[in-house]
Write a structure and sequence with these properties.
Blueprint lengths: L4 H4 L1 H27 L3 H37 L1 H31 L4 H28 L2
Helix pairs in contact: 2-3, 2-5, 3-4, 4-5
């Protein structure tokens, strides 16, 4: 599978990341507000929206990267091949965290402190990942 032009360019790729991550971050803030106001039904609705962003935008984007861009990067150099292993592992961490959040919400039937911490952790891991990925993409173009 060939990589689309938006994934190959640092600027457009960064924009894709920023749009999805900022949406998730804003929803995390809304979640905190709903919890602070003891609006637990609203908190569950917001949690569902956050999960949707992660599954249908961020994780789907990660899947696309792994299916195309990462294969091209791995073939480019040994250094990039090592980075791709790390980047893929970070995607796996995001997937695990998301599965854990869904499990907690299903089991508890409400938004717990654990779920909130893991939503915040998703953001942190993805921020670090995105920076590292853009460094790798810049190396790919050298």
């Amino acid at each position: 599978m060939s990589t689309g032009p938006a994934l190959r360019k640092v600027g457009s790729h960064t924009s894709i990341h920023d749009a999805a991550l900022n949406h998730a971050l804003n929803l995390n803030d809304d979640l905190q507000d709903a919890i602070a106001e003891n609006q637990m039904d609203e908190a569950m609705d917001i949690s569902a929206q956050i999960i949707d962003i992660w599954e249908n935008r961020i994780i789907e984007h990660a899947n696309s990267e792994e299916e195309s861009l990462y294969k091209e990067m791995s073939a480019h150099s040994e250094e990039l091949a090592k980075r791709v292993i790390e980047l893929t592992r970070e995607h796996d961490i995001l997937r695990v965290l998301l599965a854990q959040i869904k499990e907690v919400l299903q089991k508890e039937g409400k938004v717990t402190d654990e779920a909130v911490r893991k939503f915040d952790t998703l953001i942190i891991v993805d921020e670090v990942h995105n920076d590292y990925e853009m460094e790798a993409l810049e190396l790919f173009h050298k």
